[in-house]
Design a protein that fits this description.
Helix 1 packs across helix 2 and helix 4 crosses helix 7. With about 180 residues, the chain is an all-alpha fold. The longest helix is centred in the C-terminal third of the chain and has 27 residues. The N and C termini lie far apart (about 50 Å). About 75% of the residues lie in helices and about 0% in strands. It folds into two domains: about 90 residues, Rna Polymerase Sigma Factor, Chain: A; about 80 residues, Orthogonal Bundle (Arc Repressor Mutant, subunit A).
């Protein structure tokens, strides 16, 4: 969306236009959910996080600089609130329930392979530091550029690139044995 259109949309929200806010939600909801789900790994928690993040953005919109793009600012809210939720979850010691819903076009073999790959990848991601895991998820899975990840995580872009490099190296090492076993 052109920057001038986004600025006008934000100005309309500031003026109390509920439809304009609905348009902002529609434009950013899918990507916000993807980030929230990658952070929390639970559908309902991710949905709650996105809703809470939009409400926070609405409350803080008067302080937002319309000369800057809305997306990175909003996604930073999602990431911050998600990290807070993770910290609270650790304190409570809860575990998320699996969200297994079979796809109608799936087969038992494909399901098993996908589940095994997902579990192995999940274990490999769990071996990363929280910072590395988040950088990998935002860059590799969600498709954000290193500059966007740097803005969301308030890190220097070279630090994001180095973190990504170290995480990839570790993931290759962690997944090497699994790949060799499945190639046989």
């Amino acid at each position: 969306m052109p920057a001038t259109d986004e600025r006008r949309l934000i100005e309309r929200v500031r003026e109390g236009d509920h439809q304009a806010f609905g348009e902002l939600v529609r434009r950013y909801q899918r990507r916000a959910f993807a980030i929230a789900y990658r952070l929390l790994r639970h559908v309902q928690d991710a949905e709650d996080l996105v809703q809470d993040s939009f409400m926070t953005a609405l409350e803080r919109l008067d302080g937002f600089d319309v000369q800057r793009p809305f997306g990175p600012w909003f996604f930073r809210i999602v990431v911050n609130r998600g990290q807070n939720a993770l910290a609270a979850r650790r304190v409570r010691g809860t575990e998320s329930l699996p969200d297994d819903v079979p796809h109608p076009a799936s087969s038992p073999v494909r399901d098993l392979e996908q589940r095994e790959l997902g579990e192995r990848l999940g274990l490999a991601l769990d071996e990363l530091s929280e910072r590395q895991r988040l950088v990998v998820q935002l860059h590799e899975i969600e498709g954000f550029s290193t500059a966007e990840v740097a803005g969301m995580l308030e890190m220097a872009e070279p630090t994001v690139r180095w973190t990504l490099h170290a995480a990839r190296k570790r993931l290759r090492r962690e997944l090497a044995g699994w790949k060799e076993a499945n190639d046989e």
